Amino acid sequence: MSRAIMLWTGGKDSMLALTEARLQGVAVAALVTFTPPSPHFLAHPLPLIHAQADALSLPLYRMTITAPYATSYERALAELRERLGIDCVITGDIAPVGAPNWIVERCHSLGLSPLLPLWERPRKALLEHLLSLRIECLFSCVNTRNLPANWVGRRLDAQAMLDLERLAARGKLDLCGEQGEYHTMTLNGPGFRLPLRVEPGTIARQGELAYLHAPRLILPAA
Questions:
Q1: Are residues 108 and 139 in the same domain?
Q2: Range of 138's domain?
Q3: If DSSP codes are grouped into helix, strand and coil, which group holds residue 74?
Q4: What are phi and psi for residue 163, nearest 5 degrees?
Q5: Within 13 Å of residue 60, how many CA atoms lie on the same side as its CB?
Q6: Is the peptide bond before 59 cis (omega within 30 degrees of 0)?
Q7: Which has the closest alpha carbon to 12: 160, 187, 151?
Q8: What is the dihedral sign for C-alpha 36, 100, 19, 140?
Q9: Mutual orientation of helices 123-132 and 158-169 as an angle, nearest 10°?
Q10: Has this prediction a pTM greater than 0.85?
Q11: In this protein, which residues make up the domain named Diphthamide synthase (predicted)?
């Protein structure tokens, strides 16, 4: 059985990939979030990521990345391999974005096996599978060129999926948000001890992005 780390952003793709890897029998040792030295994530606040790890009963390793980036990523992965005894790295990547897959290349340099459970699967099938697994997410950030700001804070449910399909059919966006059209945060799913709850704050803007500003995270009872 492979022993793996899950590269974790806190969104729907990370959660779905984690679930799929576990269904394949992969032992997940930890979640790993790569950050710059002074992170400020609009879509995936670090307090939420820590709360997700706690709800999933998995350790979270935050690894700081600096230039030169290839060397920094490989150094971080090598450190995790030594600490945790891993031989596999799981990512929630879905499709190529015009360049070789960054993490796959870093893994191959270190002799680690990359696992991409969602890779090149049909977008609609992925969202349907997400809903069938009762993974609960909300839209945490949208590009207002593709979606109106009032999508921020909305649940990713069957009705939202239908609305996304209509927009995708008109060429307005990628159904899974692969071009940065939207981002999500996971609140519940397989392996969560208890669901997380978020009381949305205000919707803030940064350029074309609209995002939840200072959402209040309500932690589950122990």
A1: no
A2: 123-218
A3: helix
A4: -65, -40
A5: 20
A6: no
A7: 187
A8: positive
A9: 170
A10: yes
A11: 3-214
- Calpha distance 171→186 (Å, rounded): 26
Structure tokens at 26: 């992969």
Mark 157-168 as b/e (b = at least 16 C-beta within 10 Å).
eeebbeebeebb
Nearest to 11 by CA among 91, 73, 86, 76: 91
Task: Return the CATH number at 152.
Answer: 3.90.1490.10
Same domain, 73 and 49: yes
Mean pLDDT of the chain: 93
Q: Which residues lie closer than 8 Å to 132 by C-beta, 6 or more apart?
A: none
Q: Are 208 and 152 in contact (CB under 8 A)?
A: no
**pLDDT (0 to 100) of residue 98:** 62
Please give the tally of structural domains in the chain.
Answer: 2
> Taking a C-beta distance cutoff of 8 angstroms, is the pair 47, 40 a contact?
no
Strand order in the sheet with 136-143: 182-188, 136-143, 209-213, 202-206
d(CA 46, CA 12): 16
Per-residue pLDDT reduced to its tens digit, 203-222: 999 999 999 887 777 766 55
